[in-house]
Automatic annotation (TrEMBL):
Protein name: Metal ABC transporter ATP-binding protein
Domain ABC transporter per the UniProt entry, residue ranges: 6-240
Top-level taxon of origin: Bacteria
Similarity comment: Belongs to the ABC transporter superfamily.
Matching InterPro entries: AAA+_ATPase, ABC_transporter-like_ATP-bd, ABC_transporter-like_CS, Metal_Ion_Import_ABC, P-loop_NTPase
Taxonomic lineage of the native organism: Bacteria, Bacillati, Cyanobacteriota, Cyanophyceae, Oscillatoriophycideae
Classification via Pfam families: ABC_tran
Organism of derivation: Aphanocapsa feldmannii 277cV
This protein's UniProt keywords: ATP-binding, Nucleotide-binding, Transport
Gene3D superfamilies, per database record: P-loop containing nucleotide triphosphate hydrolases
Keyword ATP-binding: yes
Presence of keyword Methyltransferase: no
GO molecular function terms attached to this record: ATP binding; ATP hydrolysis activity
Length: 252
């Protein structure tokens, strides 16, 4: 059965009078990977923050799994993998501790991990091939390993909706391929993923849906129908970005 995972209706967000997003609407159903495509400053990160509840919209609303946003957050239905630039890599926390943060919603007020929490952390780290590095300080990892660690945190949370903000920026081929394989696995399990990317090959390679954004949602839907030269020209101000040849994992 298909479930409407994300419903954004007429969403507008402004910062100190400057409009970041206006009148944006979209739908994302279960068992899908949706690419979020737009120029820098087009509102991609703001849309993520609005869905997560990190910013308050000036109008419009967001529903997750049919629930009001606040209730969905209390149910820990949404997991967020931020851009690397927004993380303090010098913070004295280990890789395993970062992933354990994804389990906080399932713990009591004292946040004392139980057996199932430790099991979820181990399973998530093994899936991203970082279990041997679990005791490392998070900043000691490479760029690709850092991305995988935060992806593991999202996996440990067990959310039905995952938001990934530029997960492939600065990563190695191995990490990119592993993340894509895990995204496809989540899709098969009925999860929904919204992933922003500047690489057009990612959209055509593994995204079955796409959202085109430029201060508002210009178009969204099945990739084959929406990802057209005409729509891309509108999204990028008349300049369509080049696509690299081949798909994910083609590099040696």
């Amino acid at each position: 059965m298909t479930i409407e995972r994300i419903a954004v209706d007429h969403l507008s967000v402004d910062y100190n009078g400057s409009v970041a997003i206006f009148d944006a609407s979209l739908r994302l159903c279960s068992g899908s990977i949706c690419g979020l495509v737009g120029m820098n400053g087009a509102g991609k990160s703001t849309l993520f923050k609005a869905v997560m509840g990190f910013v308050r919209p000036s109008c419009g609303h967001v529903r997750i799994n049919g629930m009001a946003q606040g209730h969905a957050q209390r149910q820990h239905a949404v997991a967020y993998v931020p851009q690397s630039e927004s993380v303090d890599w010098n913070f004295p926390v280990s890789v395993a501790e970062v992933v354990m943060m994804g389990r906080y919603g399932a713990m009591n007020l004292l946040r004392i991990p139980r057996r199932q929490d430790h099991a979820a952390v181990r399973s998530s780290l093994e899936r991203v091939e970082l279990w041997p590095l679990r005791k490392r300080q998070i900043g000691e990892l490479s760029g690709g390993q850092r991305k995988r660690a935060f992806f593991a945190r999202a996996l440990a949370q067990g959310a039905s909706v995952l938001l990934l903000d530029e997960p492939f920026s600065g990563v190695d081929v191995r990490s990119e391929k592993l993340i894509v394989e895990l995204l496809l696995e989540l899709k098969r399990r009925g999860r929904s993923v919204l992933v922003s990317t500047h690489d057009m090959a990612h959209v055509t390679g593994f995204c079955d849906q796409v959202v085109l954004i430029n201060k508002t949602v210009l178009a969204y839907g099945d990739t084959g129908e929406v990802f057209t030269p005409e729509n891309l020209a509108r999204t990028f101000g008349g300049s369509v970005p080049e696509q690299r040849d081949g798909g994910v994992g083609d590099s040696p």
